[in-house]
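Re: [help] complex structure
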Amino acid sequence: MKRSRLASTLLYAAVLLFVLVTLAPVAWLLILSLSPPADLTAKPLRFIPSQIDLSHYRRLLDFGANTPGEAFLLGLRNSLGASVGATLVSMLVSIPAAWAFARYRRRAVTATLYVVLATYMTPAVALVLPLYFMLSALHLLNSVTGLIIVYCAILTPFTAWFIKSAFDALPDEIEQAAAMDGAGVFKTLLYVSLPLARAGIATAALFALLLAWDEFFFALLFTSNADAKTLTVTIADFAAGRATDFGLVAAAGLLTALPPVLIAFGLQKALISGLTTGGVKG
Amino acid sequence: MQRPGSISPWRLLAPMLAIMAAVVGYPVVQTIALAFTDARLLGGLGSAHWVGLDNFIYALTDANFLSATAHTLYFAILSVGFETLFGVLVALLLNEKFRGRTVCRALLVLPWALPTIVNAIMWRLIYQPDFGVLNAVLTQTGVLSGYRGWLGDPDSAMNAVVLADVWKNYPLVALIVLAALQNAPADLYEAARLDGAGAFRRFQVVTWPVIAPPLLVAIVLRSIEALKVFDIVYVMTRGGPASATKTMSFFVYEESFRFLRVGSGASYALIVVLICMVLVTVYMRLLRHGQPA
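Output below.
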């Protein structure tokens, strides 16, 4: 079906508007991060930097005592530690669980699956106070280990649900064949199902990393200094207050956003199927 | 399928259930217990006393909490409403055939992937009262006569936060609807067109039935997230100005960690949970009917 000229023009105008609205805010962040400090407070505002200035990035990546660079790099370390640690723990416990959810059709197992899903939607405010007391009793407040433990509350229900659909997609015959050859449940899981579902499992791990990387509420309440503050908390600190260094904040924000954005672009197809099965939330 | 080999599923589930019991199950139970006490954050749990329903009675008669509830509902309805509207419109747009469509679809992932905190910081910078780009653009094009403090004015602060939230989250709705549209039967469109159905009628008869179920899931999912909103508010306004953007979750945070009244904070938290639970139940029903589990 051919479009009329008018319809065509309207369509491209709408597409242009969409591209503009999507890119403009992020482009502005990029411009702020690359502008010399004087440009940022110029009036009237300079929309194009007078020159490309990498000093904000340099300051962030420069490790010196009591500098923003130190806070940023330690935040990066803590975010990496907490995200990777929590993802590993969650994957370890949710792979066998997901397989049980996918293969056992008993009522109690299915009911458990839905409890897990409900858990995934439970507001963090419902957990935060007891978790605070728990970490305090274990002397794990303000530690990456403590964050790894509490992040499991967010990650584990997600990975269990997501990996279950990966196992659901496997054909039954292969596992049955393995069983007939005398392989036990653990062997079948380890040598047959796991390799076959590896793409789905890897995707779950990457999304789990994203979830942990974005986490803010627990990190805000359970950490107090650079020993454990994650990137999200660190850059929120940067942005607080009136007299902030806009260029530095913008650069820190962009660097923090870079890993999840790259992962999301790489995982576009999986993201969309995850969204449509309700496995990935906003 | 019948399980090859015979092992109890509970052995496979046990490690996960143990962790969930520790970091979710036990905390939920303890939050419920705390809500009936006057526990304080620093006094430890030993000094807590049973106070019955006092916290709840206080919460439900506290004008500040009720106004925080109103702010939360305002935020949730407005942001989810616009996310639905723009989500559907953009999905319909990106379902059309045009050059650069693939790139545009990829672009839709960008706001979704941006961490909430980065999004909040980005919009804070855009709204910045003295040097922000929004003020600059609006005054230099003559729309506004002078700079405004978007986040500093109680009348505009919440709407400014909503806009930032919509920008980041409508792509989720759009992606879900777009995926559904690709399953829409093309020959039905053709048939409807041959029958002389106009664009609106075609949308109503062919498109809507295809996108409505997943759209509903997306709306419920977004509503749950919107009702527990905290991060974006914390970074953009800290609940201000004059409590204009203080939401329920923010109230729990302040009561517990600034005023250290944990018992009372827990009762606020439970109220948030109860409201969310209504939607979680709806969500689970939708999912259970939506796919052959």
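Residues 22 and 28 of chain B are 10 Å apart (CA to CA).
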